[in-house]
DNA sequence: CGCCTTTGACCAGCGC
DNA sequence: GCGCTGGTCAAAGGCG
């Protein structure tokens, strides 16, 4: 319910564009009422990875440092959006957020800090093996201890246009549940990172509005390297984008284990707010992150209405810039192209 | 055999 | 307090 509401909100905000994370998030992702019109018609062979911009990422790293067009491009809808932004407990966290899209997730920073701890503690308690068995008990205890409603990990919704529900992102996931959701003919699937110590979860559901759109919501932060990476299965990467040389790793990597960040040239910056780097080059059905927005607790990368996309241009765009294309508001891109 | 998905049941949070 | 809904558990079964 609440979640639904929230997601409605976030989708709404996605549609309304100006992301709710007004003040503290310098809107590295301005989304000035524009769609990432990388949506194309004929991109069935475009991999998630590619879409996420593995290509030519280095060409425009600066794009991630888009000058906070915050005020200029996207007036914060502060009035319409409840001030749900967590009080910057992020003095450090947010500060750590480089002027990159990772800022987007900074809105969830507080939640991250607070929420991840319990999970981690339960793990570090040592009874990892029994964890599953005593899970409920532990949960109850934790709740009792907390004396408050359970805290959710920061979430990051990611809309992609894809025929497949479960997008490869370089990590291994185990499905642990599926639920029919209200107001949607499509079930929601729940996945958990298979890594024992990693509590990252993700939900995958199809948009009821547009069945072609898959909404993937990541929750939590990977505490381990991508299994794919670890295996060194793929080293297909272009020279690390300039940004990578930044000594300062994204603090709150959604899906990015800190240990991997430096290696993850793939999505150096995206990694901090996007799903883990899709390292598996399995041909996807053209998942397309098209638009970003966010909620205090949920940053959202959504795909815009396909009708807004310019198919041909999109194809070219993907070729030219990769994911950046998707992440950078078309408006800005146009300016660049001019 | 290990890992994964499926699926029904259970639980907690929230609104009324 | 009750009912609804989302989220999770865990047994069972499938697959490589």
Automatic annotation (TrEMBL):
Q: Give residue spans, biased composition: Pro residues.
A: 74-89, 236-252
Q: Which SMART domains match?
A: WRKY
Report the superkingdom from the record.
Eukaryota
Q: Bias regions of kind Low complexity — which residues?
A: 12-24
Q: Example GO molecular function term? A: DNA-binding transcription factor activity
What is an example of a Pfam family matching this protein? WRKY
Compositionally biased tracts (Polar residues)? 91-101
Entry keywords, A to Z? DNA-binding, Nucleus, Transcription, Transcription regulation
Looking up PROSITE patterns in the UniProt record yields: WRKY (PS50811)
What does the entry list under GO cellular component?
A: nucleus
List where Basic and acidic residues composition bias occurs. 128-161
Entry keyword Nucleus: yes
What compartments host this protein? Nucleus
User: What is the protein's given name?
Assistant: WRKY domain-containing protein
Species of origin: Musa balbisiana (Banana)
């Amino acid at each position: 319910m609440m979640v639904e509401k929230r997601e409605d909100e976030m989708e709404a905000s996605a549609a309304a564009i100006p992301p709710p994370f007004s003040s503290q998030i310098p809107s590295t992702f301005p989304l000035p009422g524009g769609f990432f019109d990388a949506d194309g018609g004929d991109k069935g062979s475009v991999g998630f990875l590619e879409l996420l911009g593995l290509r030519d990422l280095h060409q425009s790293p600066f794009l991630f440092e888009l000058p906070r067009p915050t005020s200029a491009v996207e007036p914060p809808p502060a009035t319409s959006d409840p001030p749900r932004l967590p009080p910057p407990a992020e003095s450090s966290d947010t500060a750590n957020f480089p002027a990159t899209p990772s800022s987007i997730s900074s809105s969830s920073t507080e939640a991250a800090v607070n929420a991840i701890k319990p999970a981690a503690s339960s793990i570090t308690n040592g009874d990892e093996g029994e964890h599953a068995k005593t899970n409920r008990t532990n949960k109850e205890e934790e709740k009792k201890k907390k004396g408050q409603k359970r805290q959710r990990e920061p979430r990051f919704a990611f809309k992609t246009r894809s025929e497949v529900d479960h997008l490869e992102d370089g990590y291994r996931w185990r499905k642990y549940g599926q639920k029919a959701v209200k107001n949607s003919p499509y079930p929601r699937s729940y996945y958990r990172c298979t890594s024992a110590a990693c509590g990252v979860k993700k939900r995958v559901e199809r948009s009821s509005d547009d069945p072609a759109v898959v909404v993937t919501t990541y929750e939590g932060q990977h505490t381990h390297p991508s299994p794919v990476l670890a295996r060194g299965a793929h080293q297909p990467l272009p020279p690390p984008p300039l940004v990578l040389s930044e000594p300062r790793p994204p603090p709150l990597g959604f899906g990015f284990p800190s240990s991997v960040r430096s290696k993850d040239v793939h999505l150096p910056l995206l990694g901090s707010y996007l799903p883990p780097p899709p390292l598996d080059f399995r041909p996807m059905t053209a998942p397309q992150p098209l638009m970003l927005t966010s909620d205090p607790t949920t940053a959202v990368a959504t795909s815009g209405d396909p009708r807004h996309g310019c198919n041909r241009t999109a194809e070219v765009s993907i070729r030219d810039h990769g994911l950046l294309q998707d992440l950078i508001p078309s408006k800005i891109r146009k300016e660049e192209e001019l």
